[in-house]
Specification:
This protein is mostly helical. Helices cover 75% and strands 5% of the residues.
């Protein structure tokens, strides 16, 4: 198994809740959990530590990133810095087809989730939620910026794992997405930037409150 595969295994364990924020584990335990040799695990651990998802403490073991107030504020602060820049570009550029596609997908999943809020429907709602954010960043066509965004997206997902999942929260977030996308469709770049900034601050406040 390659380091990249081991990294993905560890990341999946983090986001599944098998590894809890702040939990201490040994290198051997991590290797066994991912089903990889110690050497491969060590390389993946180094990458995860570089991304601030793990912290290696000499004599104490390896700690999963703890979702502290500082961690939450920094992750959402970075998200705002990246995505507000991105949404201005998304709103003012030639992205009409993508915007229409996102609007249609968001409306469809909102209608389904409100009528029949099953686990599968809510999972699709989360996927549609992330798709908008991913496409906003993708519109910048900047590989380094996208890499930073993807690393931070994992931190944001870890924050969500540590908080209680609320179907109402997911639906409210998607309703806010519709407002942002309508502003993008109208090419109101500053309006879209303000709406997205408000959306991110609302999400951060909920995360800080453990919601």
């Amino acid at each position: 198994m390659t380091r990249a595969t081991a990294y993905q295994q560890f990341r999946d364990r983090l986001l599944s809740g098998e590894l809890q924020p702040g939990q201490f584990v040994t290198q051997k335990e991590l290797a066994q959990l991912a089903g990889v040799p110690i050497g491969t695990a060590r390389e993946a651990i180094q990458k995860l530590e570089h991304e601030a998802l793990l912290k290696v403490h000499p004599q104490r073991g390896i700690q999963v990133a703890d979702v502290t107030t500082k961690f939450i504020r920094e992750a959402f602060g970075l998200r705002e810095a990246l995505e507000v820049q991105g949404v201005r570009n998304f709103a003012s550029g030639d992205f009409g087809i993508e915007i229409d596609m996102l609007l249609a997908a968001t409306r469809d999943v909102l209608e389904d989730a409100r009528a029949n809020p099953t686990a599968d429907t809510l999972e699709r709602a989360v996927e549609v939620d992330w798709d908008m954010h991913d496409r906003i960043i993708g519109s910048l066509n900047n590989d380094l910026l996208n890499e930073t965004y993807q690393i931070n997206a994992t931190r944001l997902r870890l924050i969500k794992v540590s908080n209680r999942f609320s179907p109402d929260r997911a639906l409210t977030a998607l309703a806010e997405h519709l407002d942002i996308l309508e502003l993008c469709k109208a090419q109101e770049a500053e309006g879209a930037a303000k709406a997205l900034s408000h959306h991110i601050h609302t999400a951060m406040t909920r995360a800080l409150q453990g919601q």
